[in-house]
What we know:
Blueprint: E1 2-5, E2 10-13, H1 16-23, H2 27-37, E3 67-72, H3 87-91, E4 109-112, E5 119-122, E6 127-130, E7 143-150, H4 156-165, H5 175-183, E8 193-197, E9 221-224, H6 240-261, H7 265-288, H8 295-301, H9 310-325, E10 330-333, H10 349-373, E11 380-385, E12 389-390, E13 393-395, E14 402-403, E15 407-412, E16 420-422, E17 424-425, E18 432-434, E19 437-438, H11 439-449, E20 459-461, E21 464-466
Parallel strand pairs: 3-10, 3-11, 7-16, 7-19, 8-9, 8-10
Antiparallel strand pairs: 1-2, 4-13, 5-6, 7-15, 11-15, 12-14, 17-18, 20-21
Helix pairs in contact: 2-6, 2-7, 6-7, 9-10
Amino acid sequence: MKIFHNSSHTRLLSTRREMLQRSACGIGAVALTALLGDPDYGDHVSAAESSNTFGPRPTHFPARCKSVIYLYMDGGPSQVDTWDPKPLLTQQNGKPFAMKMEPTQFNNNGNTLGSPWQFAQHGESGTPVSELFPHISKHVDELAVIRSMTSAFSEHTNANYFLHTGSGLQGRPSMGAWFGYGLGSECRDLPGFIVLNGGLIPPGGLDCFNSGFLPASYQGSIFNSNNPPVANIRRTEASDLLQRNKLSLLNKLDAGVLDRLGHVDQLESAIANYELAYRMQIAVPHLTDLSDETELTHELYGLNAKTAGTATFGRQCLLARRLVERGVRFIELTCPSVGHDRWDQHGNLKDGHEKNAAAVDQPIAGLLQDLKQRGLLKETLIVWSGEFGRTPFAQGTNGRDHNPFGFSLWMAGGGVKGGTIYGATDEFGYKAIENRLEIHDLHATMLHLCGVDHERQTFRFSGRDMRLTDVHGHVIHEILS
């Protein structure tokens, strides 16, 4: 607060930032007031007076897509066994590795390890796909395969933070939080950033989905695969009227605190979450009840499959489609347990990768097909990736260690040019040598497709304008349609 003096009086003037902060103090209270006035909640005000605090926000330029589905392949799938075939590995299988080996996570390095799986060209594009993915390969003309991604970290926890937040340090906002902050939400009844947990929270824990220094309302909401999917989704009060009365009292108490203290993010977020939580008690049971889906849809997503993890991941993929239909902005799926340590096969590569691939292959193919036939794929961006790749030489005799120097991922839908291959690794699939990319480029491209300039989307924190891509990142225009 600045104090200005003159001979006749003293007056108090706020800086512009302080004025905005003070004027924002009532946002949470307005949100709850809107809830109390909603026709589904009570009779206090008319429906026309209610407002959506987290409504859609204008983008920097026209968006190619409205929602993002991020398929997180926890542990690091091997690029040379999935999307980046290397015949030389097969030719030199079992021989000493011909390139200089960088330090690895466990330093139990063996000889060159050829892929146990065959690759074949698919679709009109002729994109090579490993036999690990017989279902996804049918949709390869929708995919833009990137073969030259790199990471700055070779250890799971830091690499996960880097992948999810653009920083290898704990505590930064997740990319899902940044999308919610920049774009707002098109759904009044559900969070803008939802994590569908298949059973394996990645190393780094829930901080991979945190809001960091962004307002707390933007953090990821975890939906579990069990029932109920969200804790306390069913009210404990004996009647709806009793619950409304409690929330009305909370509104009055919180409004008093805000009057005294001014802007308090935690309290503002809590008030806004009261509104959202009440609406979720109605919305979530309808969302997660899949009985209104046809049996053909259940079969498409693999909900009746007997292979480990397929039905679980299939349910997640189907829920992701239903969330997109409801306007949820950012949805992340984590892997189900298949009896192995994620995609992290330091040993027994063949059995581990086959089981992990079988769990996700049919559900992802079903998601791509379902979104396309409903006309939703063109406005939904799908991203498939792990936090790094794996070495082309063995760890021990039959595993692969972590490799951040060159790995593969793919993107589909939402303005992506399908049937595209971008970038390349060396003849062993070890290091990116053509169109080398980093995670910041992935984030910049994802934001761009949603109509957001990654350099202009900032948040003032600790005296600096922070952004998801820090001072890095370039949009990968070559894979855009």
